[in-house]
From TrEMBL:
<keyword id="KW-1003">Cell membrane</keyword>
<dbReference type="InterPro" id="IPR028987">
    <property type="entry name" value="ATP_synth_B-like_membr_sf"/>
</dbReference>
<comment type="subunit">
    <text>F-type ATPases have 2 components, F(1) - the catalytic core - and F(0) - the membrane proton channel. F(1) has five subunits: alpha(3), beta(3), gamma(1), delta(1), epsilon(1). F(0) has three main subunits: a(1), b(2) and c(10-14). The alpha and beta chains form an alternating ring which encloses part of the gamma chain. F(1) is attached to F(0) by a central stalk formed by the gamma and epsilon chains, while a peripheral stalk is formed by the delta and b chains.</text>
</comment>
<comment type="function">
    <text>Component of the F(0) channel, it forms part of the peripheral stalk, linking F(1) to F(0). The b'-subunit is a diverged and duplicated form of b found in plants and photosynthetic bacteria.</text>
</comment>
<keyword id="KW-0175">Coiled coil</keyword>
<keyword id="KW-1133">Transmembrane helix</keyword>
<keyword id="KW-0066">ATP synthesis</keyword>
<keyword id="KW-0472">Membrane</keyword>
<feature type="transmembrane region" description="Helical">
    <location>
        <begin position="12"/>
        <end position="32"/>
    </location>
</feature>
<comment type="subunit">
    <text>F-type ATPases have 2 components, F(1) - the catalytic core - and F(0) - the membrane proton channel. F(1) has five subunits: alpha(3), beta(3), gamma(1), delta(1), epsilon(1). F(0) has four main subunits: a(1), b(2) and c(10-14). The alpha and beta chains form an alternating ring which encloses part of the gamma chain. F(1) is attached to F(0) by a central stalk formed by the gamma and epsilon chains, while a peripheral stalk is formed by the delta and b chains.</text>
</comment>
<feature type="coiled-coil region">
    <location>
        <begin position="46"/>
        <end position="91"/>
    </location>
</feature>
<dbReference type="InterPro" id="IPR002146">
    <property type="entry name" value="ATP_synth_b/b'su_bac/chlpt"/>
</dbReference>
<keyword id="KW-0138">CF(0)</keyword>
<dbReference type="InterPro" id="IPR005864">
    <property type="entry name" value="ATP_synth_F0_bsu_bac"/>
</dbReference>
<dbReference type="Pfam" id="PF00430">
    <property type="entry name" value="ATP-synt_B"/>
</dbReference>
<keyword id="KW-0375">Hydrogen ion transport</keyword>
<comment type="function">
    <text>F(1)F(0) ATP synthase produces ATP from ADP in the presence of a proton or sodium gradient. F-type ATPases consist of two structural domains, F(1) containing the extramembraneous catalytic core and F(0) containing the membrane proton channel, linked together by a central stalk and a peripheral stalk. During catalysis, ATP synthesis in the catalytic domain of F(1) is coupled via a rotary mechanism of the central stalk subunits to proton translocation.</text>
</comment>
Amino acid sequence: MEKLWEDFGFGLFFWQLIIFVGLILLLKKFAWKPILNSVNEREEGIKNALLSAENAKKEMQNLKSDNEKLLADARAERDLLMKEAREIKEKMINDAKSEAQAAGEKMISQAKAAIESEKNAAMTELKNQVSSLSLEIAEKVLRDELSNKESQTKLVEKMLGDAKLN
């Protein structure tokens, strides 16, 4: 450190000081303003970029909330449509069941009527067959009994006796 003070000279110091002050003045006049302007422009650019990023973030949040709202609305509408579809399906099933039941009851009543008609026809036919069979049997029995003169008289007397009793 002593060597530093030994080599110290006012002339050299003076010229260095003048060069330094001149350099400062030159820098102030020609370089300082452009440097400060570029720094200020950069600072403004950064501020604008941060502001734009903040606005974009807010817009994204708004879009996200809008999307969530739209999604919730779509889900609600889907649920409503599904509910309506289920109700329509149930109504269609119930209508089909009631129509099928009505058709079944109609078929059953038609079948019962047909059965009753067939039964009546069968009973009529059976009565006709029984009466014709009874007439044939009675005719055969009467022929057998009327073939003989003596049995013919007994039969006539018996019928007369029955007729008087009644």
